[in-house]
TrEMBL record:
It comes from the Bacteria. Keywords: Purine biosynthesis, Transferase. This is Phosphoribosylglycinamide formyltransferase. N(1)-(5-phospho-beta-D-ribosyl)glycinamide binds at residues 12-14. The record marks 145 as: Raises pKa of active site His. Pfam families: Formyl_trans_N (PF00551). The active site is at residue 109. GO terms for cellular component: cytosol. Its EC number is 2.1.2.2.
Amino acid sequence: KKRVAILISGRGSNMVSLIEAARAPDYPAEIVLVLANRPDAAGLTRAQAAGIPARAIDHKGFADRASFDAALQAELEGAGIELIVLAGFMRILTDAFVEAWAGRMINIHPSLLPLFKGTHTHARALEAGMRLHGCTVHYVVPELDAGPIVAQAAVPVLPGDDAETLAARVIVQEHRLYPAALALIAGGGAALDGGRVRLAEAERDPGAAL
Ligand code: GAR
């Protein structure tokens, strides 16, 4: 099994769905560490309750991004981590860190990339008059939310939606998509190859449910 660390900044609902999926005996990854850049991240308590070692590395205690990332790197190496999963991790990582983990770090973003990179994705999808919205799992590259796409799930935008109701519809799909995408990668069904995602012959996007 691949040794996985999950990085969070907040409530950690995606983290919980990954921890639960990884309990299945045949799941190809094990969640061995949870790290947060904020000591008040609610997900830390939830990880500990699930029996996963979890701790904060408070970014405020570091002079710059490079020294924070070095502390992160030391923790990850100490735990023998092979894959990093960003789950609501709201801190920009240095190019050097991202490049050191190229092909071994994924993120989930609450939009159908390449639309709506950055924050406030649900409000922006509504503002743009989208009829479909969703979430994307992608490899992390230095450019924000621009990495090769592993899997996506779409939801309808319904009359009367506000950012909150739309977010609630998307997060249900996030909780389904992320464990499926991690299984695909950890099990060798998808890999980064020359800057593109190569799916194994038998695989399809686990999110495509339309
Ligand atoms: C999720 O919707 C995730 O897609 C988003 O933050 C939320 C975290 O929720 N991530 C980003 O916006 C990354 N830029 P969670 O802590 O309950 O998993």
